[in-house]
Amino acid sequence: MAKNIITGIDIGTSSIKMLSIRKKFNDEGFEILARSQRSVAGVRKGVIDSVEKVSQTIAECVKDIELQVNNKVEGAYVNINGSHIFSTTSRGLVSVSRADQKISTEDVDRVIQAAKTFSLSKNYEILEVFPKEYIIDGSKGVKDPIDMHGIRFEAEVLIVEGFSPYLKGVTQAVLDAGLQVNDVIVGPLAAARSVLTGRERERGSVILDIGASTSSLAVFEEGSLIHIAVFPIGSDDITNDIAIGLRTDIDTAEKVKLEFGSCLPGKGDTKKEKIESIESGRTVIFSRVFLRKIIEPRVSEIFDLVKEELKKVSKNGLLPAGVVLTGGGSMLPQISDLAKKNLKLPCRIGVPNDMDPIIEDPKFAVAAGLAFYGSEIEEDQGSSVFGKELMKKIKKIIKILIP
What is the pTM of this model? Predict the structure, then answer.
């Protein structure tokens, strides 16, 4: 495939979404070349439990993409998700190496490496490291320390960890589908890249990606990532609650959710609705107010989990740019209004930015973000600093597959 065509693969619990893009010649956004979405088996709560089934579905998506672009897909950027992912803050300390006390890129590399030197949980590994701030001779809040002067040089970083066997499963599934793994990126970070604006990241915001069986968040402040978390709860849990409440099958419950579901009171709530069961053919009768009483507690549970995570970083109710909802679960009517009420923050529904044609579908936020990251990475390949980082990533992916 042409080098300027980038592909992202979002491996979700209910479906795999693949998107191929190309940067426009005027550098104003991205052109969508192809996209594919297929139902998948073999993923539970965001984690692959059947590499073979997932690999087969990825291969089917690849065929879809190749037919649309009339070219071969060779590699892709892929996400990793699941409640095994968590973040922690760490600090590193080094002395500035140069005699003139000017901080160099080598000093930055050393201080970040020092911050990564701590005891990891068994079978866990570092997925990503994000500098939050640098501290020079006790002076905090430095974002770009290169060429500044000092003796004592510290870094506070956010380290994202994940379960090694799950990372290996993601990588193996993509390789078995005949693709090269260009990089593995944490799901909420990819969603944030495609949905959040630079102003939202700078002012302080949280993105919440509500998927089928997981919900993941990423918190930003002053342009930096300060927290990541993933919960084992998603829109499928709402469907399951409806199936139990209406005593019907899952497929019918999903249809009821999509056609009649809402998070807050509305007109016609007491009106009786009827729908034919997909499985049995019997008539299911319910009121919208009854349906809302099933849906609202589960959605509120997700927002309660978000509040607990925001409290961990002292940001509960304190993010001026608010919360941005994305993912398939964000399409539930009035969910943004319930988020405003529960989280006491501004809220909007986020879809991928800078796309032509525009994708008015939050389900493609992660796939788009993966492709965006890929474009930025490959655009920077000319620099020697990037060259080192690229080789580290390639070696890391190879190492993952060594028993």
Answer: 0.90
